[in-house]
Amino acid sequence: MPESGKMVMQGYNLVKLLKRLEDATARLEDVTIYQEGYIQAKLNNYDKKHEKTPNISPTATAKPSVSGSIPSAQNDSGITEEPKSVVEFQKFISDNVDSLLQLSNEIDPTVGECLSLLKQAFECQLILIKTASKSKKPDYNSDLFAKILIPINESIMKINDLKDANRQSKFFGYFNSIAEGAPLISWFAVDTPLSVISDFKDAAQFWTNRVLKEFKENDPNSVIWTQKFLNIFDQLKAYVKEYHTTGLTWNPNGLDLSEVSTTISTEAPATPAAAGAGAGAGGPPPPPPPPPSSVFEVKPDVPEAKSGIDAVFSEINKGADITKGLKKVDKSQQTHKNPALRASTNEPIKSSAPPPKPKKPTTLKTKKPPRKELDGNKWFIENYETQTEPIIIETNKDESVFIGKCSNVLIQIKGKVNAISLSETDSCSVVLDSSISGLDIIKSNKFGIQVEKFLPQITIDKSDGGNIYLSKESLDTEIYTSCSTAINVNLPIGEEDDYVEFPIPEQLKHSFGNGKMNSSVFEHAA
């Protein structure tokens, strides 16, 4: 080829190479522009989702809303306002609880401490109401929801502990009033919160009446304190009726509780003063989302494994090729050609024992403290368990005794008493002198009764496994039983006043004649 032809060919190749280089450069520019537009679109969507307020200086920026789907009012400065239910609950605390706390501190520092725990529970509930305004309704049995309720439960338990630690205080009526009314915090968890608030008001009012009875003449503040305390129930009832008629109101368009609870917990005020100071302060905006993966990365297409009915049809469609996946079995593994293997297969296969079934968790109940107290003309002995020493009380004929929810205890009642009731006890023994009306035993198991003097009547209902020892003065005692088994009565009519046991009949015979029903004890059970 002549020299001029070679130069023409080289020039042609150079032009072609430059053309390809320009095409590649244009392609790279297009890809870069596409990727920048993709990232910008993602950022815009993220900003819209978090309701980022435009044209606001960093010093005036408010806290970003947790959910972009929640309509929230904004004032002229652009600061997002709280929902009205949250604002009104804050007002409820400041108008009712704060003034009562100040008065409680004037009455007694310990009473003030007890009421501050109640205020703390209300503040924790305020956080819950904020969370509900931004979150969908969660599963109330979930671990996350139980974790949110821990601060409220701890405040209520501390109130009860403080009450029990001050039983000898002259202000015990105040502590009982707060402790009996504090569970009104649970209104959010029921469908009829108004009735729950009314019930706990009635329970607390029993003790506020005692406060008035004890302090009305000596301390005028007791009257004001009682009025303010009961007013909390009325004001809370009005608030709940307005915003949460059927329980705590959640946001159907909100985020999941797991997302909202994290934000709310970081915003939760340490003290009420801090809450007011930080209402308008805003945190830094959240970081932008991570950029999308590079468009230059090419991932090979991996076929997804078929499952379900598709996998079945896929195997069927293989036809004769389906046997290619089978494993070849050699002679050493064939029982008809290996006598030793055939002999071993004759032994019965021992199936492994099934794993034990997990036990169902028992219902968690709050263990109440033991109580032995004379309230008016009635003794209360409750919640005692496994007492090594007998519980002894001195009574008179105008008083009655109630024994409830005791286990493995011995109770001695000295003196003549009006009436005695034994309810929901287990392995409980009672030694009594005399009773004017009689003895009632309800839902008790393995009980023991010993009468020293006179007892006119015993009524036993839904109880099992009892032994009753009567005195000579009580041989005419009338015993009424229903839905009870294994009841034995011992009378001192044997030699040298030994006791003779008489089992209470459990089997009855019923017959009909002349239009009437006749019942008698079945002779084999007598």
TrEMBL record:
Q: Which GO terms describe its molecular function?
A: actin binding; adenylate cyclase binding; identical protein binding
- Please give the superkingdom of this protein's source: Eukaryota
Basic residues compositional bias: what residue ranges? 357-370
Q: Which Gene3D superfamilies match?
A: 2.160.20.70, Adenylate cyclase-associated CAP, N-terminal domain (1.25.40.330)
Positions with biased composition (Polar residues): 54-78
Q: Compositional bias of type Pro residues: which residue ranges?
A: 283-293
Q: Which residues form the C-CAP/cofactor C-like domain?
A: 369-504
Q: Would you tell me the Gene Ontology cellular component terms?
A: actin cortical patch; division septum; growing cell tip
The record's annotation in SMART domains points to:
CARP
State the residue spans of region: Disordered.
49-80, 272-299, 325-374
The alphabetized list of GO BP terms reads:
actin filament depolymerization; actin filament severing; adenylate cyclase-activating glucose-activated G protein-coupled receptor signaling pathway; cAMP-mediated signaling; negative regulation of cell growth; negative regulation of conjugation with cellular fusion; positive regulation of actin filament depolymerization; positive regulation of mitochondrial fission
Q: What does this protein do?
A: The N-terminal domain binds to adenylyl cyclase, thereby enabling adenylyl cyclase to be activated by upstream regulatory signals, such as Ras. The C-terminal domain is required for normal cellular morphology and growth control.
Q: Which family does it belong to?
A: Belongs to the CAP family.
- By what name is this protein known? Adenylyl cyclase-associated protein
Q: Lineage of this protein's species? A: Eukaryota, Fungi, Dikarya, Ascomycota, Saccharomycotina
